[in-house]
Specification:
226 residues, homodimer, 40% helix, alpha/beta
């Protein structure tokens, strides 16, 4: 990259980092735990998130922001859960930025939330560089995409906390090599926590939700008592 | 986007367009037809390209450039076809640019080629803005990604000439709505040519190859006579 381009890019990232830091402080003060989801297009972020919102909505105050270049389709799908949902339309921008999150939250009272989900634009490259102030970043990839994705998109796996292998119900039919997938994830990020699930069949979804509630440090008894 | 960022971005794109134009002239002079492939990660670009190189290698002089953030895995897979293949490693860059193509072709004699394939980085957003001097841009999306992708990533469909629906062998098991997919593609780009295929089962691959040889305007008799 040319020096000037590099400089401009570094300035953008620095500004984003500052905004993300401010967001993180705001989230902590409001007591809201923030989880972002990143993946390729079609890995199943929205389907999993919809199911998760439905399961959590009964005993936790959950909400979601969802990024896409175009359409409000995902927000509509997620809103069926009854949780507050807002679509962020990025136009030609290939990722969400902290400023977009800040602006989308303008008219929301964060104190009234326990968990806020942020679904990024479907892209395994660009979202890696943009901190959104989240507490937990989850990268999803599907059995249908192939086991090599962690090696080919290492940065997004490196900047994520948990890896989810989605569409586990299709693993057999596509000849998914589970052992190779785990090896590739762990090569890129040793010790990374991995969950396999199918949002369609439901397999593994409860384990995922247990993990989220555990990580968000909200005791189940407390949550149920709301 | 801030005005300065926008200005820098426009300068990059302008420079890329100029380089792409020069490449296109060079390709025409050398009589090589250039086809680029764009898609999400895991839509099946490499699998289809490998099969295509294998089928064409007997009677046409074919070669491939393949872009990835990391690893030479794809180049190795493609080289099994016997065709000349070169990997372009982009590092953190989310797309190929004309300058990368120019530099990768430095030590290749274009006059000795009939068709050059360029496989872009797996990304449905960023590659849309970068002309590589190709004659034909093909966008692939798989039945497992869902029918809504053309609506959610309209620019890449708009800048492509042909849409390929891959993994047709999985259409039934994932409940792929073929009608909705066609409607979404044609809404974004009316009249766009669509081919369904499965590189794994082989279904539709011959039709795809016929289309390529037809579009590259190399009569089959001539090609076979080489």
């Amino acid at each position: 990259m040319q020096p000037r381009i590099l400089q401009v890019r570094q300035q953008i990232l620095k500004k984003n980092d500052e905004l993300a830091r401010a967001l993180r402080t705001r989230f902590a003060e409001a007591g809201v735990f923030v989880i972002s989801l990143v993946s390729s297009p079609g890995a199943g972020k929205t389907t999993l998130l919809r199911k998760t919102l439905l399961k959590l909505a009964g005993h936790l105050r959950v909400a979601a922001l969802v990024g896409d270049l175009a359409t409000e389709n995902d927000a509509k799908r997620l809103a069926q859960s009854g949780a507050p949902v807002k679509q962020i339309i990025t136009g030609t921008v290939c990722h969400l930025e902290a400023a977009m999150i800040e602006s989308a939250l303008n008219d929301w009272d964060l104190n009234s939330l326990d968990i806020l989900f942020i679904e990024n634009v479907g892209n395994l490259v660009c979202p890696a560089s943009y901190d959104l102030g989240e507490n937990l970043r989850i990268v999803l990839f599907s059995t249908t995409e192939g086991e090599d994705k962690p090696l080919k998109y290492p940065t997004i796996f490196n900047t994520s906390d948990i890896a989810i292998i989605t569409k586990s119900d299709l693993a057999e039919v596509v000849g998914f090599d589970r052992h190779a997938a785990y090896e590739n994830i762990l090569n890129v990020r040793p010790g990374m926590q991995i969950i396999e699930l199918s949002a369609r069949s439901g397999e593994g979804v409860d384990r995922f939700i247990d993990l989220l509630t555990h990580r968000s440090k909200i005791p189940a008894e407390h949550a149920d008592a709301r």
